Amino acid sequence: MAVQKVPALEVAAIRQGIAGLLFTGFFLVKGEKIPTLKEMKWMAGMAVLLFVSANGFATVGVKYISSGLGALIAALYPLSVVLIERIFYKNTKITSYTFLGITLGIIGIGFVFYENAFHHHPEGYIIGIIFSVIAMLSWSIGTIIIARRKSIINPYFATGWQMLFGSAMLFVMAVFSGNWLPVNEIPISTWKAIAYLVSMGSILAFVAFIYTMKHLEPSIAALYAYINPIVAILIGSVLVDEVLTLNIIIGTIITLIGVYIVNQSLKKEKKALIEPIE
User: Fold this and answer.
1) By C-alpha distance, which of 126, 140, 5, 128 is closest to 70?
2) Prediction pTM value
C-alpha cells in the first residue's frame, strides 16, 4: 500500500530513516556511546546487505508483484542459507532430507510464480521477481555474516545505525534514479502506511526478532518464516484485492513444508554434531 503512489526506494529510505532516528535517539539518551569508526564501517557494510539490498529491494519488488509472493520468496532464505554455507564454506551437509526440502521449496514457488508469470504477464512482474530474489539472497548472506561475527555493540543500537546508513544510501539511489517525489507531495495515505511500517515493521518487529534470537532456540525463532507468507497472502487478498487462487494456496503450503524440512534437517545435523559418540 505504501508503494502504490510513491517510488519504492523513497518509501524505503523514509521508513528506515525515521526508524533509525528513533532507535539511535532512544539509546543515545540512555547513555550509549557513539560507535567507533571501525564499528561504523562494519555497520555500514551490514546496512548495504540488510537495509539497502534486502529491505530496500524487497520494497521495490512488491511494487510489481503481490505482497504474498514477495513474502513467500523471502521465506526461502533458510534454503538459500543452506546452499550458500555448503557452496562457499563446505560446512553444511546436503542430506537427502535437506535436498527434499529445497526441492519442495522451489516447486512451491513455481506454483505461485506460474499463476501470474505465464498467464497474466503483469507489467514489471519479472523485475519484481528479480528484486525480491536479490533481497532474499542479501538477507541470507547478512544472516551468515552476523552468525560468524559476533558484535559487542548493543544489537538494538546497532540496528538503528544500520537503518540510518541504509536510509542515506537509499535516498542517494532514489535521487540518482530520477524517480523521486517531493516530500510535500506525498499523499496522506502513504504517510499512514509508512507510519505503520516504521512502528510495527521496523521497530516492534525488529525488537521482537532480536529478542527471540537472544532468548529462544534458532529453530523456534525461525518460525516467523512460516507465518509471514500466510499473513501477507491473506491480508493482501482482503485489503488490496490481490488474487488468491488454489495454485497460490497449494504453492504456499508446499513451499512452507519445504522450508520446514530444511530447518528440521539442520536441527538434526546440529544435534548429531554435539551428541557424544558412544
Assistant:
1) 128
2) 0.78
